[in-house]
Write a structure and sequence with these properties.
Blueprint: H1 4-25, H2 27-38, H3 40-59
């Protein structure tokens, strides 16, 4: 049986794996991340994209409280 803690660890791990795969598979993504690290105005877009990905991972599949 999978506990909520194990599920959260799996979700974070899968997010990290997907991010690493995207960086290796898509060089423009790596260039964007590098540029974002140098330029703060682009860095906010990277933060927003990561926040959106995290929100989607934890938001999908949850039932609304009723």
């Amino acid at each position: 049986m999978i506990t909520p803690r194990k599920r959260a660890i799996l979700q974070v791990g899968s997010l990290i794996v997907v991010a690493i795969l995207l960086i290796f598979l898509f060089k423009p993504a790596a260039a964007f991340a590098e540029m974002a690290a140098r330029e703060l105005r682009y860095f906010w877009w990277l933060i927003l994209l990561v926040a959106l990905a995290i929100w989607l991972i934890w938001g999908i599949g949850r039932r609304p409280k009723s």
